[in-house]
Amino acid sequence: MALSRGKPNPNPGGTMPLMDHLRELRNRLVKAVLAIAVGTVVALFFYEQILDWLSQPYTDIRPDLEAKGIETDLVLTGVGGAFTFQLKISLISGIVIASPFWLWQLWAFVLPALHSNEKRGVLLLSGLGAPLFIAGAYGAFLVLPKAILLLIGFVPEGWGSLLTGAEYLNFVVRMVLVFGIAAEIPLVVTLLNRLGVVSAKQLASARPWIVIAIFVFAAIATPTTDPLTMLLLAAPMTILYFVAEIIARFTDRRRRRTAPPEVTDDEISPL
Predict the structure, then answer these.
(1) How many whole angstroms separate alpha carbon 92 and alpha carbon 96?
(2) pTM, whole model, 2 decimals?
(3) Percent of the chain having pLDDT more than 90?
């Protein structure tokens, strides 16, 4: 009897040999890297527009700095500084542009290990990740002009300030990442609750400590020293945590309604 030369059928247990797992991971990583490379090439064609958008917070506060008598400018240093700076911006932009594809490759590798009900919940919550991150990044761009004005405002009167492109880019990326990741708090907490790692009762009991941790994180993550910028990050994080706690409460309530009744040692099992 001839053997089929097609792909082997998955075994009934739904498991996969280790080498097949590694091959699958390799294929997913190669596709993700290729997508990032394509996104980087696309970003190279729109480099001027991306650079104008990134430098807009700095451009907005230059008149205020000049009114204080502070001369400041963005500069690029070194013979290959401009080329390196362009590649760095294009690579970061390429990662962002290709994020839907490489995130899907990550989930496509993980999803087969989940049950059908877990897949629906994870896919639904994952769809909220991008809007939450974008909202956090938008909040960072609202804070950036004030943060730059405050920090450069410490320059002594009569002095100038030269800000390199690499320093400015690192500052902007750090602010965007901090605010974007902070906006993912309800998603992470809700996922942990759906997976049964934490319950709504545990979240409620740990609420005071988590709120304190949020304010400590905001104080450390924000580059400025004023309390207003810290509150602009800590207050939305706290509200989002409360929202996640409410969602976890409804999830636990629904889980208790659908769970089979427990059988004690003194009762006779219906089986």
Answers:
(1) 6
(2) 0.67
(3) 7
